[in-house]
Amino acid sequence: MSLAVTTAVGAGARPDVPHLLRRHWPLLPLAATVLTLLVPVPAGDASASGKVGPADAASLVLVLVCAVQALRGRVRALSPLAVLVLGAPAVGLAVATATAGDPQAALPGFVRYLQVFVLVPVAVVLLVRDAGQFRFAAGCFTVLALVQGAVGVVQYVTHTGASYQGEDVRAVGTFGPGDVMGMATVVAYGLVVATAAALAPGLPRPVRRVAGGTALLLVVPLVLSFSRGAWIATAGTAVLVMLLAGIRRAVRVLVALTALGVVLVGGLGVGSAMVAERLTSITQVSSAPDQSVTDRYTMWAAAESMWRERPAVGVGLKGFPAHRDGHASLGLSSGSDTAGAGQGYVRQPLLSPHNMYLLVLGEQGLIGLVALAGGWAALLVAGIRRYAAGRAQDPYGIAGAGGADHAVRDCGLIAIGLLVWQLTDFLYADIGGPSTVLTGVIIGLAAWWALPSPAGPRAASGAAGR
Predict the structure, then answer these.
(1) Domain range spanning residue 443?
(2) What gap in Å lies between CA 276 and CA 288, rounded to an integer?
(3) For residues 191 and 145, is the Cβ–Cβ distance under 8 A?
(4) Whose CA is closest to 84, among 123, 118, 120?
(5) Is residue 334 part of a domain?
(6) Considering only 26-35, 48-57, 175-184, 412-421, which range has the smallest mean pLDDT?
(7) Given a cut of 70, is residue 342 above it in pLDDT?
(8) What is the CA radius of gyration of the chain?
(9) Tally of structural domains, the chain
(10) Neighbour-count burial for 106-124, b at 16+ CB within 10 Å, e otherwise
(11) Is residue 188 part of a domain?
C-alpha cells in the first residue's frame, strides 16, 4: 500500500480522488482479503479449519467483482499459457473428487482448493491492471505484517503469547496458539515484500529506504515466532532476492541484517537462549529429532503410503485424516499441545502431513501434483526469465529497449520472492488456517508478473510511473 501511495505522490500531480476510486475500486476486495486477517481469531478456536472467516468472505467478494468486471470487458486479457497454467489445477481437483472413495466428503476440499488455487489467483491476475495496482496489493501485505508483528512483540514482552518451553512468550499475533504459523507466515510475507522493494531498481530512493527499515523491523517478530520453517524460507528467499537484485546491494543488506541480529540477540538479549536452542534444533532434525519432528516424518511416510496405494488419483480430497491411522506407524503421537494467548490447554489433532507436496500426492495422486506443482514451477521459471530478460535489456537502469519491463522490475522481484517463499514453506507446511487465502493472492501476483497480458506492455505496466 505504501509503495503505491508513495509512487503516486512522488509524481508531483494532485490526485483526482473520484477518478482514482472509479479506476481502482475493484481492488478494494483484494485489500480486504489481506487486511481482514487483522481480525483476531476467537479464543479457544484451535485452528479455524473448515470455517469461513472474514478473509474467505472477502475473497468471495473479490471473485464476484472479477466476474462482473469480466462481463463488462474491464479486465486484462489472458494468454493461452496463462489459461493453461491457472486452469489445470481445476481438472486435477475434479478428478480427485470424482474418484474419491466418498465424493460427498471430498466436496468441501474441492471447494477450498478451487478457491485458493484457481479462483482467487485468476481474480488477482484479471483485476490487477498495472504496476501501481500491483504495488498497492503488495503494500497490503506489508501493513498486515507490521500490525501482526507489533502484536507479536507485545506478546513476547508481556508474556501473553502462546506457550513455548513452559513460558507464554511465543509471538502468534491475533491468530492464537492454535495457528502458531499464522503470524510467522504473514510477517515473512511482509518482510519479503519490503526486502524486494528495498533492493528493487527503479523505485525512488526514499521508498527504498523506508522499505529497508521496514524489513529490518519485521526481523524482530519473525525471530520471536520461534518458527524454524519460517526462518529457513525467509533466509533462503532473501538470499535469492538479493542475488537477483545485484551482488553489491546483497552485500549491503547482509551486513545490515547481521548487525541487527548481533544487536538484538547478542546485545539486547532478545530471546537469545530460546533462539539459540531453536536454531540448534534445526541441525538435529535427523540425528536427534524432537517429538514434533518425529510426528512430521511419520505423517510424511503415511502420505507416501497413501500415494503408493492409489498412485494416479490418490485417496481423495480431505482423505488424509480418514486414512492416516491405516498408514502411519506407532511412532505418531495423538496430537500437539497448545495453550496461552488467551486460550487454555488444547490437544490439537494431527490431520495433515505438514508438507503440501506430499499432501497433494497422497490425496490427489500424480495427476493432482502435476497440475498444481507443475503450474507453480512454470510460474517460477517464467517469472525469473522475464526478470532476467529485463535486466539484460536494461543493465544500467536506463529505460531503453527493455523500458516497459524495467519500469515494473520491482514488481517482478516482489512476485518472485513471494512465490519462492511459499514454495519453500510448502516443504514443511500445507494449507490450513485463516492465512491460507493469502496463498491464492500470492499465486495470482506471481502469475500477473510471469504471464503478462498478450495485449502488450501497456496492459502489464500501464500506469507504472503514476
Answers:
(1) 28-284+353-461
(2) 16
(3) yes
(4) 118
(5) no
(6) 48-57
(7) no
(8) 22
(9) 1
(10) beebbebbbbbbbbbbbbb
(11) yes
pLDDT band for position 167 (cuts 50, 70, 90): confident
Average pLDDT over residues 437-463: 77
Return the higher-pLDDT residue of 123 and 176. 123
Kindly report which listed range (258-267, 270-279, 345-354) carries the lowest average pLDDT score.
Answer: 270-279
Give the C-alpha separation, 195 to 239, whole Å.
Answer: 10
- C-beta separation of 150 from 220 below 8 A: no
Q: Let me know: does 198 contact 377? Beta carbons within 8 Å.
A: no
CA pseudo-torsion sign 30, 162, 47, 93: positive
Q: Would residue 438 count as lying in a domain?
A: yes
Q: What is the mean pLDDT of residues 145-171?
A: 89
Q: Which residues contact 190 (CB under 8 A, 6 or more apart)?
A: 141, 142, 143, 144, 145, 146, 149, 214, 218
pTM to 2 decimal places: 0.86
Q: Percentage of the chain surpassing pLDDT 70? A: 74
Average pLDDT over the chain, rounded to whole?
A: 81
- Which region among 29-33, 162-166, 424-428 has the lowest average model confidence (pLDDT)? 162-166
Reading the block at residue 78, the C-alpha cell is 489472458
Look at the block and give the residue holding cell 516497459.
Answer: 404
Smallest Cα–Cα separation from 203: which of 132, 142, 287?
Answer: 132
pLDDT at residue 7 in the model:
44
Rounded-to-integer distance, Cα 141 and Cα 191, Å: 9
Contacts of 304 (CB under 8 A, 6+ apart): 358, 361, 362
Residue 91: inside a domain: yes
**At 6, is the secondary structure helix, strand, or coil?**
helix
Q: At what angle do helices 409-425 and 131-158 cross, to 10 degrees?
A: 50
Q: What is the DSSP letter of 348?
A: E
Query: Which cell numbers hold the place of 187?
Result: 510477517
- Please, how many CA atoms are within 13 Å of residue 200, restricted to the half-sphere of its CB? 31
Taking the C-alpha atoms of residue 288 and residue 279, their distance in angstroms, rounded to an integer, is: 14
Give all strands of the β-sheet with 336-340 in edge-to-edge order. 167-170, 162-164, 336-340, 343-348
Kindly report the backbone phi and psi dihedral angles of residue 260, in degrees, each rounded to the nearest multiple of 5, phi listed first: -65, -45
CB atoms < 10 A from the CB of 43, how many?
12
Task: Specify whether the backbone of 269 is left (phi greater than 0), alpha (psi in -120 to 50) or beta.
Answer: left
Where b means 16+ CB within 10 Å and e means fewer, 128-152 reads: bbbbbbbbbbbbbbbbbbbbbbbbb
Is residue 142 within 8 Å of residue 150, measured between CB atoms? Answer: no
* H or E element, residue 167: strand 167-170
How many angstroms separate the CA atoms of 417 and 408, rounded? 15
pLDDT digits (tens, 9 = 90+) for 252-266: 767 776 676 666 655
